[in-house]
Task: structure prediction
Amino acid sequence: MKSALFWGIALSYVFFSFLGDYPLSFLHKAIPALMLAAWILSQNFNGKVLVVAAFTFCALGDMLLALPFEHSFLTGLSAFLVGHLLFACFFVKWCYWTPNKSIWLAILGGSVIAAASLILPVAGDILLPVAAYILVISAMSASAILAAKNHQILIFGAVVFMVSDLLIGINKFVVPIPFEHLAIMLSYYLALYCLAIGIVKRTSVK
Result:
């Protein structure tokens, strides 16, 4: 994968989005995830179709969230939820236990409980979809932690993905976050990149 091209497109979206709406901005936002889907497709490992589909649903979620129509948040959330389910389904077959993973799982669990206690009481009419999303992304992150072997980048990618999404929830429902767009998008693109690299590295280790 051409990392420079990936980051060039990702950072250009972050920069141009500060200038306001522009034609095809929704597609610009989704191109990094589509690039990773194409790169994964070129790799050779069992189950890659699940990963390609997961990145494709992330790209779809990007576009839906960026388009100005009613219920865009819920439809985008749904697309990402499917993406996380696909990631989790892929990670399950790679999962194995070591004692040091309990530390990561404890950090993950504590962070989820803390964020959910802030977000869910103020989620209003979309409490159930938001709760379901938090549950699914938690499962994806936990399965990534359990699947990781010699490369911590997979764990890092999954955890940063969760951080990015929880920032969206806190910013939307709890309190505005300074420079929220910068924090959310940079962490999101970093999470996608690390997940893709981590998955390929993990599948090369028996």
Summary: The mean pLDDT is 92.
